[in-house]
Amino acid sequence: MKFRIIISLSLLFLIYLFGIFVSINNVNQTTATLNRLLNLHKISDLRASLVHRVMRVNSDLYTVHTPYSQSLDRIVDNVDALTSLAAACTSCHHRPETLADLEQVGLLIEDFKKALSFYITTSADSRRLERLKHDASQVGETLLLQVESMAREASLGVERVSAQAFSEIQRSKNALLVLVALAGLFGLLIAVFLARSITRPTRALVAATRRIAAGEYGFALETVYREEFGELARHFNAMSLSLKNSYARLEGEVEERRQAERALRASEERYALAARGANDGLWDWDLLGNSIYFSPRWKSMLGYDEPDIGTDPNDWFRLVHPDDRQGLEAKIAFHLEGTVAHIESEQRLRHRDGTWRWTLTRGVAVRDENDRPYRLAGSQTDITERKKTEEQLVHDAFHDALTGLPNRALFANRVEHALLTAQRRPGFLFAVLFLDLDRFKFINDSLGHFTGDQLLIAVGRRLAEFIRPSDTVARLGGDEFGILLEDIHGLDEAVAIARRIQKDLPRPFMLDGHEVFTSASIGIALSSRGYEQPGQLLRDADLAMYHAKARGKARYEIFDKSMHDHSLAHLQLENDLRRAIERQEFHLCYQPVIESATGKLSGFEALIRWRHPTRGLILPSDFIPLAEDIGLLPTIGLWVLGEACRRLGQWRSLGGAALFLAVSVNLSGREFTPALVETIRKMLSEHQLPPDSLRLEITERTLMGDPQTSGALLAELKSLGVGLQIDDFGTGYSSLSYLPHFPIDTLKIDRSFISGIDHNRDNYEIVRTILALAQNLNLKAVGEGVETQAELEKLQDLGCGYVQGNLFHPALDAATAEQLIRRQSLVP
Ligand code: C2E
Ligand code: CA
Ligand code: CA
């Protein structure tokens, strides 16, 4: 492009140079022509002057006679002037003929001058003078003619040269015009060319920059241009593209930043919301400047407005409860030292209304590169409610919900405390009283649980009247109460209180419109050297209480060591019993049941035996009640049922009359539950027994606990097809009205009635009545514990269908029983 412009401008310059040259040349030529013209005009003047001189000379010659001398001089002067004029007219531009003419004029003038001088010098002779005058005038005439012809010639020359000059001027004009036209045309071409090669891309560039300025980043120019503009377009496009990319990147970054800003704002808002929502106050302590920021919530939590609390850390600490302040400060100090990872402290703060509020302060320090803390910030939560709940929970955990008295745990705690005091102070004595209300179950059952509860509350209150504030009354559970008497002088003091209770407690309580009476059995345990655990004292007082109960209730007993020994043995037995099943220490004996009329074996009653590893054989009356108490009975009962069924199946497999054998199993009250139905069903199917080969013995006492429920359960059992017998009949004070509604088969008359039936009239009457009842209700009867022939005979007389007792067989082990089955020829 640069070269093109330079070449174009150079060309233009050359054209102008050429035009100037032509013009100068033309002007030069025209100037020369005009000079010649001037010379010609000068010659013409010369000629006129020459003609004038010649004519003067000639006229002088003829008009002047005398004195010649003066006239001659004038003539001579004129001739000399003529000569010089002629000489002046010699120039190269003359045509050759003109030059010749001029030479001739010079000669003539010379002759004329000679003639004149001759005339002047020879003035004496007049003729000669006349001739000379004539000659001279002749010459003058010739000269005039010559000059005239020359003048003609010259005027023609002037005309010619003038025409030539005009034509040259015209030519110069034309040349200049052409030149101007050419230069204009060429200039126009260059302008068009430059417009094409500069303006268009420039305009495109301007348009492109305008579009980019309008935001159209990445807009690209056409790359049709060559040279600089092409390069410019490429650079421009590259620039535009990089602008676009940068813009996109920038936009991306801006968007990222905007998003980050939005996220930050959201997070800040969330934080603010969370802080507000969390209901926590915030604090931020500038440790270097020792100023602290408390959030509005922090202040409002304590009832303060924004300006009430400044930025002084003391504004905080002065509100802390004096008992808690040291703890809080210590925790902060520990954390700042780096001993603990963060601050977590619970303390009371004074609310503006004067109350104490529990607050939980959490905080953590920010440390510099040298691990020096420079900022400490955290939160404050109002935990008053939680504390109250905790206190309530603690209270609940240590108090009885019904009476509000301390519970067993708190009582034990206080006893433990007393034990520790006794260890420190040798003379310190205390006593634990264990109270159990007599007949409480009866009151509860007869008057209802609500009255029962009211009674417990009232008893609690009354007991509290008997003691000093330093003593403790606690409800230990159910109808049991405990009293801790601290710092007494001796056992007498404890006994005196027990007596007062015995005396005052039976005063009637007015409960729900009823006058309720109660009494308590009390066990007393006095602190002594041997005790280390509160449980030991409680246990001994409890044991003493049991003895009081056993000795007739409504009395107190003081614990002594023999009670303990007894209870230890009991405890040992309990432990052994728990392990008896897994050690397979139980086995079953079978007492035959005899048909009284024929003496034939009708079946067996399964009776459990415990072969104790050290104590030998233990009978059921010595461990069944204990097993019931400690909840082992369902397990033992299940084993009995399984074992009896297994044995019966085994005997039945002997075939023959053994197929008609039946085994009865004793059930405890604990087993007599709806679950029993399913258990029996499984047993029967497991051992493939016909249902009527299994008989269940349930004591009258068990059935009468809840006759309605019992009736329903009996009906379910009956639907299985098993035999149902009432055991120990006659001892359970049963209301006979229920009897017809129980789907039972057999009454087993208790041994206490059979015994001495032959001579004991009462027993005889009772058995007779029972047998009559059985007969009326179409029930079978078994007389238990028949020991003598006389007893048997009486029973036979009274029509008792079945008997069992030592008269026939005691309870036999399984092998002996099987021998009996075989011996009785029941088996073929
Ligand atoms: P029970 O059901 O009344 O059983 C009869 C008891 O009288 C048995 O005592 C038996 O050995 C005893 N006996 C039988 N004939 C005579 C006799 O002629 N004279 C005397 N003095 N006693 C006789 P045992 O085996 O000691 O059982 C006592 C009680 O233990 C049973 O009284 C029964 O209530 C219970 N019992 C026994 N085995 C079990 C059992 O497997 N489960 C349950 N829950 N209780 C059982
Ligand atoms: Ca029985
Ligand atoms: Ca019995």
Topology of helices and strands:
Elements: H1 2-63, H2 68-88, H3 96-121, H4 126-213, H5 227-277, E1 281-286, E2 291-294, H6 296-301, H7 313-317, H8 322-337, E3 343-350, E4 356-367, E5 373-382, H9 384-398, H10 408-424, E6 431-438, H11 440-447, H12 449-465, E7 472-477, E8 480-485, H13 491-504, E9 509-511, E10 514-516, E11 519-526, H14 534-550, E12 556-558, H15 561-580, E13 586-595, E14 601-612, E15 616-618, H16 624-629, H17 633-652, E16 662-667, H18 675-687, E17 694-699, H19 700-705, H20 707-720, E18 723-729, E19 746-749, H21 751-754, H22 761-776, E20 780-783, H23 789-798, E21 802-803, E22 812-813, H24 814-823
Parallel strand pairs: 11-12, 14-16, 16-17, 17-18, 18-19, 19-20, 20-21
Antiparallel strand pairs: 1-2, 1-5, 3-4, 4-5, 6-8, 6-11, 7-8, 9-10, 13-14, 13-21, 13-22, 14-15
The structure holds ligand C2E and calcium ion (2 copies).
Description:
It contains 24 helices and 22 strands. It is of the alpha/beta class and 828 residues long. Strands 13-14-16-17-18-19-20-21 form an eight-stranded mixed barrel, surrounded by four helices. A five-stranded antiparallel beta sheet has the order 2-1-5-4-3, sandwiched between helices. The protein has a five-stranded mixed beta sheet with strand order 7-8-6-11-12, with helices on both faces. The longest helix is centred in the N-terminal third of the chain and has 88 residues. The mean pLDDT is 86. The site of one calcium ion (CA) has 4 residues, from loops.
